[in-house]
Write a structure and sequence with these properties.
The structure holds two protein chains of two kinds. By secondary structure, chain A is mainly α. In chain A, 43% of the residues lie in helices and 0% in strands. Chain A starts with a helix and ends in a 36-residue tail after the last helix. The mean pLDDT of chain A is 90. By secondary structure, chain B is mostly helical. Chain B contains 17 helices and nine strands. Chain B has a three-stranded antiparallel β-sheet, with no helix packed on it. Chain B has a two-stranded antiparallel ribbon with strand order 4-5. In chain B, a hairpin with a 2-residue loop joins strand 6 and strand 7. The termini of chain B are far apart. Classes of the chains: A mainly alpha, B mainly alpha. Chains A and B meet through helix 1, helix 3 and helix 4 of A and helix 11, strand 8 and strand 9 of B.
Chain lengths: 209, 427
């Protein structure tokens, strides 16, 4: 898989990289969806599309499973640059969302510790801030698509850009918890907002695969 | 009396010319109703086999590649085919009655393939390579049509072409066709056996290999006498190498079995397909029977070959290039450019590396990529893209180094060449 690690880092662990995300240890279903999204035009990044254009679904599944199974330590997170007030604002959005705009808390789907929910929802920690900004921006502008109903597109469009900047900064500066694995069960929804329905992660409705 | 007769003659000639021009431009298709199959079991089984044959022929012609958008419904059309004269959008081949071929007869379909005409008589753009498909037999065309009619109908409207003036007129097309196209029927060559003839039929017809592997003139036409002599694919950064030159892609020295493997799986001993050819294998030739692949191999192997000569100057090995090679390339391609058989191609003695035309080499380094994942090679190895890591100067240095090392003797690659290929990005 040297074709992949060239950009995504040794064993899929992108260290200190401005843009390319870590793929090691991400949920297999999520990685598989992204590989197909790039190949089939639902996500747009020419280098990825070119690499995947000639690959079959079966092989993409194997590639996803391979990287998903890698259990590697995370490098230290970026230093926190937000003020205390900004941190509080970001923390509130991430842990509680915003009921008035139907924005669910990130923890609702991405797990209480934001390490992801197997097999389709990725963790949000240990990612470059600029990568997170780019993805939220891509959803906002319709450059990135997930399977309908595209819950992240709705959330990204509802958030203001300054809020996105706070969230991405906050996320990229969080230390990883001891257990970085995606959870296999989500607690019952707690917030005032309902857990969204997501085409790419149908098991969110049940809270388990 | 004479004068009246003269006037009548003139009138007749004018009318005849007018009718002739009208027919020449707008020959509408006669409609012949199709006889449907009877409902007996035997007829149904026969129909199943007939549809399978049609599906197979669609693979041989790789119809889906142009008639499907990225991630779109199969055969629903809409894919943009860039040409130097504007953009042509492929049409909907599903049996939708409004947007597709649902109202077509088999004769309509045959005329499209054989004469490059739509059912209403309109001339078609040769971006649809009827210059090759004209040689497809009517019986094959019928099977292909039956298969397409059996597909699920997709109600996707056809996008109007975006051709620039004056190429957007039927008159321009008619003129082009007068110069460059004549409907042809494939004839068996009695000097060759059935296998060779089958190969010739596939390569020249549905395979439409010459559509890429031949250079085109200023008006985008191919001279059949130069067929398969190599050409840059218009509007893309890929060069389809000559099948007539040992120094490029000539197959005269290859074993038939190796040619079959290359077309059937995308990989053979020390060669693999890349770029547009990889798509051909992935969607087309990997589905052909061993027998048909052997026939094509025999035909291609038998083409007249120009023996290998050293093309162009010889570069001097570059120290900077050597450094880049050690850092970025040697872990897969080997310290001596020896590669790893079945995984990473050898660069030493590799004619794809040594060709005078360096377009494809630069493409590989900038974009990387995998060999196609075919049934015969389901887990291909791949190469990362280097365009974010190496600038034009570095790409030129490392390629120059590779072309001058380990016994390789080919010309240098200049920074200007690399910039030009990068600037011409269409992908």
């Amino acid at each position: 898989m040297r074709a992949c690690t060239g950009c995504h880092g040794e064993n899929g662990r992108a260290e200190g990289n401005v843009y390319f995300p870590r793929i090691a240890g991400k949920p297999a279903g999520y990685l598989y969806n992204q590989l197909r999204n790039f190949r089939d035009g639902r996500r747009n990044y020419a280098l990825m599309t070119g690499m995947l254009a000639l690959l079959s679904d079966g092989y993409l599944q194997e590639i996803a499973t391979h990287f998903s199974g890698l259990d590697l330590p995370y490098s230290p997170s970026a230093p926190m640059t937000l003020t205390a007030a900004q941190q509080t604002q970001a923390h509130t959005l991430v842990q509680q969302g915003d009921a008035s705009r139907q924005i669910a808390a990130c923890t609702e789907c991405h797990g209480p510790a934001l390490t992801g929910f197997a097999p389709h929802v990725p963790g949000l920690l240990g990612l470059p801030r600029d990568y997170i900004n780019a993805q939220m921006g891509a959803w906002k502008t319709g450059q990135r698509h997930a399977r309908a109903p595209d819950c992240m597109a709705d959330i990204a469009k509802a958030l203001r850009t300054d809020e996105v900047a706070l969230i991405s900064s906050w996320l990229s500066s969080q230390a990883l918890p001891r257990d970085t694995h995606a959870v296999t069960r989500l607690p019952a929804p707690t917030g005032a907002t309902k857990r969204p329905v997501c085409g790419s992660a149908p098991e969110l409705a049940q809270g388990r695969p | 009396m004479k004068r009246r007769f003269g006037l009548w003659m003139l009138a007749t000639v004018v009318v005849a010319l007018g009718l002739g021009a009208w027919w020449f431009l707008f020959d509408p298709s006669p409609s012949i109703s199709e006889a449907g199959p009877t409902d007996s079991v035997a007829a149904l089984v026969e129909r199943g086999a007939y549809l399978e044959r049609g599906a197979y022929l669609a693979r041989a012609g790789n119809c889906m590649a142009c008639h499907t958008t990225q991630g779109g419904e199969p055969y629903a059309g809409g894919r943009a085919i860039e040409t130097p004269f504007g953009t042509v959008y492929s049409s909907n081949l599903t049996p939708d009655r409004v947007n597709g071929i649902g109202n077509w007869t088999s004769v309509d379909f045959w005329r499209a393939l054989h004469e490059g005409r739509a059912p209403d008589g309109r001339l078609l753009y040769p971006a649809f390579p009827y210059t090759s498909f004209t040689q497809v037999s009517q019986s094959d065309a019928d099977a292909l049509f039956a298969y397409l009619r059996s597909l699920p109908a997709v109600a996707q409207a056809n996008r109007p072409h975006a051709m620039r003036w004056p190429y957007d007129s039927q008159l321009a097309l008619a003129a082009w066709r007068t110069l460059y196209f004549k409907p042809t029927v494939f004839q068996n060559d009695p000097a060759h056996d059935a296998q060779w003839n089958r190969g010739a039929y596939l390569v020249r017809g549905l395979g439409h290999c010459s559509a890429c592997h031949t250079s085109r003139n200023l008006l985008g036409a191919i001279d059949e006498r130069l067929a398969l002599a190599g050409g840059t694919i218009p509007m893309s950064n890929w060069y389809a190498p000559s099948l007539l030159k040992a120094a490029e892609a000539g197959l005269g020295q290859w074993e038939v079995a190796d040619i079959v493997r290359l077309l059937g799986t995308g990989q053979a001993s020390n060669a693999s397909v890349a770029g547009p050819m990889a798509e051909v294998v992935l969607h087309g030739t990997q589905y052909l029977t061993q027998e048909d692949l052997r026939a094509m191999a025999v035909y291609l192997k038998g083409l007249p070959q120009e023996s290998a000569q050293r093309d162009g100057g010889v570069a001097a090995p570059s120290a900077i290039g050597a450094g880049i090679y050690d850092d970025q390339c040697a872990q897969c391609h080997g310290q001596q450019g020896e590669g790893v058989p079945g995984a990473y191609p050898a660069l030493a003695g590799n004619r794809a590396v040594l060709m005078r035309n360096t377009t494809n080499l630069v493409q590989m380094v900038l974009h990387g990529g995998f060999a196609p994942a075919t049934r015969g090679n389901p887990r291909p190895f791949g190469m990362p893209p280097y365009q974010l890591v190496l600038d034009d100067k570095a790409v030129a240095a490392v390629l120059t180094h590779v072309r001058a090392s380990w016994g390789n003797q080919a010309g240098a690659v200049s920074e200007l060449e690399v910039s030009r290929y990068r600037a011409r990005e269409t992908r």
